[in-house]
Structure formats: C-alpha cells, structure tokens
Amino acid sequence: MPEPTGATPGPGTGRRIRRIAWQLRVVFLFAALAVLPYLLSYSQQEIAVLLVINVLLVSSYRLLTLTGEWSLGHVVIMGVGAYASALLTKRLGVPVPLSMLLGASMAAATAAILSFPLFRMKGFYFLIGSFAAGEIIRLIWKRFTDPFGGPKGLKRIDPFPDIDTGFLSIDFYEPVNYYFLALIVVSASLFVLYRIERSRIGLTFHAIHWQDRLAESVGVDTFRYRTLAFVIASFFAGIAGGLYAHYVGAVNPTRFSVDQMVYVLVWAIVGGTATFYGPILGVVVLTVINEIVLRALGLDTARPLIYGAILILSVLYLPNGLESLGPRLRTRWQRWRSGSAAGRREAA
Amino acid sequence: MAALAQRFGRGPQGSRVNPQNERPILEARGLTRRFGGLVAVNDFSFSVRAGAIHGLIGPNGAGKTTTFNVISGFYAPTAGQVFFRGLDISGRKTSALAAMGLVRTFQGSTLFQEFSVLDNVRVGRHLGARAGFFRRLLGADRRSEEKADAQAQETLAFFGLEDLADEPVSNLPHGHQRMLGLAVALAAEPEVLLLDEPFTGMNPEETGRMMTLVQGIRDRGVTVMLVEHDMRAVMNLCDVITVMNFGALLVEGPPEVVRNDPAVIEAYLGSATADGAGDAA
User: Fold this and answer.
1) Which ipTM was obtained for this model?
2) Helix segments in chain A, DSSP class H
3) Is A211 on the interface with B (CB under 8 A)?
4) By percentage, how much of chain A surpasses pLDDT 70?
5) How far does the CA of residue A313 sit from the closest CA of chain B (Å)?
6) How close is the nearest chain A Cα to the Cα of B65, in Å?
7) Is the pLDDT confidence value at B213 over 60?
8) With an 8 Å Cβ cutoff, is A174 touching chain B?
C-alpha cells in the first residue's frame, strides 16, 4: 500500500523502517500479553485463558468465511476436538499434548466428511445445513452415553501434564501457567492461519468468495478449495477445543450448542471479517465489556440485554466492524491535520 | 436407432467446415439440454477447427448461452456429447476442463471486482502456479509465485493494461474491464477460448480494439469460439459461423454464405418478412 511518508530516502529504506516498526509493535504486543495476567485477579485470569482460546476459535472461523460461507456448526466442530482429545486421554491413555493434535485432526476429518453433503449448498442453505449437521453431532453425544457420557458429558478430563525438571516446575492447574501455554499454542496457530491467508491459497479463497464461477472457469476446483478452508478452520477449532477440554476438565453437549455459536458470530460481526485482526478485536473487546465492565457494574441479569444492545448499535453505527474504526479515525486525523496545516499557512 | 443414425449422418455434414478432414478440436454431437419441459438446446451438432475463430449466433433465446454453459461444464448435457481434442468431455467439471485447456469468459464484467487488476490475472494463473500446501505455508512457493506474477504482467502487457496493474478493478472503465476478463481467461493458457458476448456494450472504437485483440489471441495459437450479437464484428472476425435457432442448428458456413442464407434472414426477421425475402431470392 503506498503510504505517504514524510521524507522518502529510497523505497528500500522506507520498507525496512516500516518492517522494523511492525516488528516493534509485535514485540510490544507480546510484552503486554506477558505482563497482563499479573495485573488480573484469579477469576479474571481464568477468563483470560478462555479469551485466548476463543481468539483461536473466532480466527479459525474467519478462515472459513473467506470463501464466503458462514457455518453454524463451528462450535460443534470445536466440540469434536474437545471430545476426541478428552476420550483419547481417558480411554486410550494418549498423552495430553498429542491427544490435542489428534483431536484437532479428528475435527478436520469430520469437516472433510461433512463437506460432501454441505458444499452441495451455498449461502443460506449452507448455513442451515451446517446447523443441522452440528445438531446431529450433538445428538450423537447425547444419545450414546457409553463413550460420550450423554447429556452430562465427560468429567475429570486429564489436565495438561505438569512440567517438572528439577529447577523448573510448571503446574498447569494454575490459570497463569495455562494462559501462557494457550498463548503459545494460539500464537503459533494464528501465525499459520495468517500465512495461509497471505499465500496464493488465501487469494484463491477470496476469489471463490467474490466470483466462484469465474474462479472455476480458470481452473480453480471450488469444491476442493471450499473443503480445504473448512478442514483447516475445523482443525484449528479442534485445537481450541482441546485447549478448552484439558483446561476446564469437563465437556458436555450444551457447552457446544448454537447459543455459543451465536457468540462466535457476534464476535466476528462486531469485529469485522475483512481483516485478520477484526474478529480478534471483536472477541477481545466484547469479552472485556461483558466479563469485566458489566460484571464490575453488578449488572448480572441485564448482561445479555446490554450485550444485545451493543450488537445492534455496532451493526448500525459500525457496519464494517471495529476493524474499520482505526482507518476511519486515521483519515479523520489526517484531514484534521492537513486542515490545520492549511489554516496555519493561511495565518502565515 | 433412428436418432443414432441421424447423429452419425450429421458427422460428415459437420466436417464440411474442414474439407481437409482433420480432426476438429471441439465438437458437439446431438447435444440436448432440457430444463423441465423447456428444450433449450435440441440435438445440436457443430465442430470447431483448430486455429479458427468460430462464431455462434442466433436470435435471442436460440440457446447459445446454454450451449456455452454445457460445453464449459456448468450444466451436464441431457443427451449428446461434447468432444475436446477427440475426448468425450460431456458432464466434466468446469475446472477440470480448464485444466485440459478449455476456458470460457462471461457476459458483462464478471471479474473479481474487489481485487487489483494484477490479482485478477494472478487468479487466472491458478493452474500454472501449482505448489503443495506446506510449500505455500513455508513460503517455499516464492519462485513459482514470482514466475506467475511475471507471466501475469506479461498478459496484462498484451492487453495494454500493464500500467493499471495495481488499480482496483472497480475503478476501471467498462471497456478495460472487458479486456481484463479476456486477460484472466488467457492467463489460464487455454487451447480453446469460449467468449460469451465479448463486444456487448462497447462503442465502435472499443469493438475495433477488441477485434484486434481476439485476432491476436488466435495468432498466439488459441482457437476461439464466440457468441455475439454484434453482426458486423462477427462477420468481419469469424472464419466460420454456426447459426442456431430454437436450440437447433440452422446453418453453418463461412460469413459470406451465412449472411445471404434465406433461413438465417428468416430466423432473424421473422417468417412474415422472410416470405418476402424468400420471394426476392
């Protein structure tokens, strides 16, 4: 993007400066994230862990929306990862980090199978189809008590194993420690998601979104690419599910119901899905408002009401999401600055 | 059986286009497409010689676009076959046909409107820039991507669009958007290019430029088949013209033959006038 910079000592230098500025921003962000848990209360730390997990959930959801399809089954897919990882540790004694990967692969495989019926549909029909598919999976969890524990779900899921190397011992029962674990896993996952979007694969996803017939006519197998987006998104939703299961220690069908899916949709819509950071912004801002501000105000029963009002207001006044707020403010500031500069010149 | 005999009977008739009896690059035999009770294309046969510019014309509703949609794999034929380089391709996926070298364009400015001009053509290079998932993830596809970008630039230069590479498509005037549509298709390196109304909505100057471009594409060794309503462009550009009416073949031949064919005049002007035209002939 050609951004006007004050003095331009050659394009290479400008790019390097911008790159260093970007790297600095990332360093500051991680420093802030590292300090953050020590500024929070115990219960706020627990919320922070879930927030980090939800960042991955909503970011993986965005990858699917790049192809233009919005699913209502994403939280259920997260649940597939959670159930699979929990059962693998409980029944087969698979060690926890590995079970998370296998659980995520299970979520990805489920998506691959669901692609065949679901991607015969587009748009609204896909939305409803994905909802139905998710409900079927949830009914299976409820109906088959033997592996899945029925409506009560699975309890006493093995926690993430403690690390104890003599001088360094980390107990992941502590929210602070699990927060850092989740932060590392989620950061790595976000990096992969970002790389995918910036590669030709991302370009192809966008192309399918805007003109699937044209994409198909130049050789893009749109079914394969839709499936690919669904499978990748589901894999990372599965990772989020695994992180959740081994943190909370219990999963049940209600936890992955469509109510929870609505939250994901709200995060994505309020944040905006045009940029990579939009949905992340959405989940962070709304969680902070919901869990910290409203809780602090003691508005417990009115919280869903206020939450709904925020959604309506943001759709009305920020239809392109929170992500559009930054560029909007920047142009306004630049206009104000150039306006005042012109004013100064006139005065002189 | 009768239908089959008829279909075989059609074969040599189709090949009167190329008396040298070389195998046609694209051929339809007894192509039929129904939508419920409506027969959009009815036992339609034609063949396109390699290296030709082949026009497909006919009055509105004659089934031209449906024929294109069947050839390019958007619809499966209800009956009959399409052959590409002698291979039966009926009912194959559009993307698979593109991989074989059969690429189509669309009416109007069907483009990735939100992309830059260059990114549109980069998507067009999809087939030429293959790389595995993990290579892309690790950025190991850089060399093939740089090559794809260079080829995309080259394609843009062929259409004189290289200076607009970074413009968003939505800023482009209509004529340029149409050329870009052609550039996206050409980037897929087709052997046969199907153009759906390439001249519609263009002023005479733009039409002239587009005609030169289509000839240039043919000179690069691409066979062109086009559906078009602009008769002057079709007559000046095409080596062979197939005329459709009511979903079926009416006449096929070089422009000068088709232009004076009473059946064609009747189809376009209606039967009442055609009686007069017939008398005059």
Assistant:
1) 0.84
2) 11-35, 42-65, 74-92, 96-118, 123-143, 145-148, 175-198, 200-210, 212-217, 222-248, 258-271, 278-287, 294-296, 303-317, 325-347
3) yes
4) 94
5) 27
6) 15
7) yes
8) no
